[in-house]
From TrEMBL:
Its cofactor is pyridoxal 5'-phosphate. The keyword Manganese does not apply. This is 8-amino-7-ketopelargonate synthase. Keywords: Acyltransferase, Biotin biosynthesis, Pyridoxal phosphate, Transferase. Homodimer. GO terms for molecular function: 8-amino-7-oxononanoate synthase activity; pyridoxal phosphate binding. Pfam families: Aminotran_1_2 (PF00155). Catalyzes the decarboxylative condensation of pimeloyl-[acyl-carrier protein] and L-alanine to produce 8-amino-7-oxononanoate (AON), [acyl-carrier protein], and carbon dioxide. It catalyses: 6-carboxyhexanoyl-[ACP] + L-alanine + H(+) = (8S)-8-amino-7-oxononanoate + holo-[ACP] + CO2. It comes from Phototrophicus methaneseepsis. Pathway: Cofactor biosynthesis; biotin biosynthesis. The keyword Transferase applies.
Length: 397
């Protein structure tokens, strides 16, 4: 691609050229339909394995109707930040319902899960403090840790013994925080949260878990990782999102009331950025209603994931060590992963290649995201396509 540049911006054009030549330039597809198990891109219908819409709620008629009803009653925008313009009754209701759903003392919502991390970590620790962070934590956790200006001590992925050792070695600190993802989005494995809690409790360290990919997936009717491990009242802070399994958008922080009240006073994205829109908030409320009333969608998600995993392993694919509906199709080479994704697209399946810097170099993959929105026919057709492409590219026999 040719860019108009001057001396100030030539370096950017050079970097973009390098990305293009290395196969790392990110081309974002344009979706021409509603989100679902099947979508339309470039006029072509595709089976969709890219969305984090685990339960198929992004286009659910009940959520659509709730959003329409809320617009009729309350309009669309919140007007300004909640601490200045006041908070709409729907925001208050959503936070109360989410706290009850997750079995937490209290809850506060943000514009996204990313901003929830950016708000929470710097509000809890700062310069002179220490954060013990899993080496594979999400970028939003990493950025929140950097913003806090606390000392960041990375421990090896899901390695509780290494966490213990890093705590033993770190003797200078003010406050301390352990932070981990609940479900790791690129590999699909689950943090050993009970063991991490025991370490945090032993040393008197605050514990925070980001459950973005556990919401709607783990626990009773999708209540998340804290419910999954029955750790209610033991985890200080649980971060979540409503942009994945809830099918809408927004961030959640649930936990001890003293922390939630503190975030209302010192969580910068809460204080300096407008809240979720009215229809988004209403749709999230409806999603909570759906999950509270039935676990059917969660069960369908896991049934689809179990089928896909079993059949892909039979074909000879390396699908890593996922414990969740996320399937990392491990390919190693980023160019191979991108070619695999391209071949899938040409044969009616949308599953994106993931490479560096999202995953380490040499660990490129095609990430397959199962949802409850996929029918049996979708899965059977997709499995045939994965086998066809895998054989064509020499990935399987």
């Amino acid at each position: 691609m040719d860019y108009e540049v001057d001396r100030k911006t030539q370096w950017i054009a050079d970097e973009l050229q390098t990305l293009q030549e290395s196969g790392l330039f990110n081309q974002i597809p344009v979706i021409e339909s509603a989100m679902g198990g099947r979508i339309r891109i470039g006029g072509k219908e595709l089976i969709n394995f890219c969305a984090n819409d685990y339960l198929g709620l992004a286009n659910h008629p009940r959520l659509q109707q709730a959003a329409r009803d809320a617009i009729e009653k309350y309009g669309i925008g919140p007007g300004a930040v909640r601490s200045i313009a006041g908070t709409n009754v729907l925001h208050q209701q959503l936070e109360e319902r989410l706290a009850s759903f997750k079995g937490a003392d209290a809850c506060i919502t943000f514009q996204s899960g990313f901003t929830a991390n950016l708000a929470t970590i710097p509000a809890l620790v700062g310069r002179g403090d220490v954060i013990f962070s899993d080496r594979l934590n999400h970028a939003s956790i990493i950025d929140g840790c950097r913003l806090s200006r606390a000392t960041i001590v990375a421990y090896e992925h899901n390695d509780v013994d290494d966490l213990q050792e890093k705590i033993r070695q770190t003797t200078e600190y003010g406050r301390r925080l352990i932070v981990t993802d609940g479900v790791f989005s690129m590999d699909g494995d689950i943090a050993p949260l009970p063991a991490i809690y025991e370490v945090a409790n032993e040393h008197g360290i605050m514990l925070m878990v980001d459950d973005a990919h556990g919401e709607g997936v783990l626990g009773r009717n999708g209540r998340g990782i804290v419910d999954h491990f029955d750790l209610h009242g033991k985890i200080d802070v649980e971060i979540g999102t409503m942009s994945k399994a809830f099918g809408v958008v927004g961030g959640i922080v649930a936990g001890k009331r003293v922390i939630i009240d503190w975030l209302r006073q010192r969580g910068r994205p809460f204080l300096f950025s407008s809240a979720m829109t009215i229809p988004d908030t209403a749709a999230c409320l409806e999603a909570v209603d759906l999950l509270e009333s039935s676990g059917e969608l969660v069960q369908a998600l896991w049934a689809n994931a179990k089928l896909m995993k079993a059949e892909m392993q039979k074909m000879g694919f390396d699908i890593g060590h996922s414990e969740t509906p996320i399937i990392p199709l491990m390919l190693g080479d980023v160019k191979l992963a991108r070619q695999f994704s391209k071949e899938l697209l040409e044969n009616g399946v949308f599953a994106m290649a993931i490479g560096y810097p999202t995953v380490p170099e040499g660990k490129a993959r095609v990430r397959v995201m199962n949802t409850a929105a996929h029918s049996q026919a979708d899965l059977e057709e997709a499995l045939g396509t994965f086998q066809l492409v895998g054989r064509k590219l020499g990935v399987i026999d």
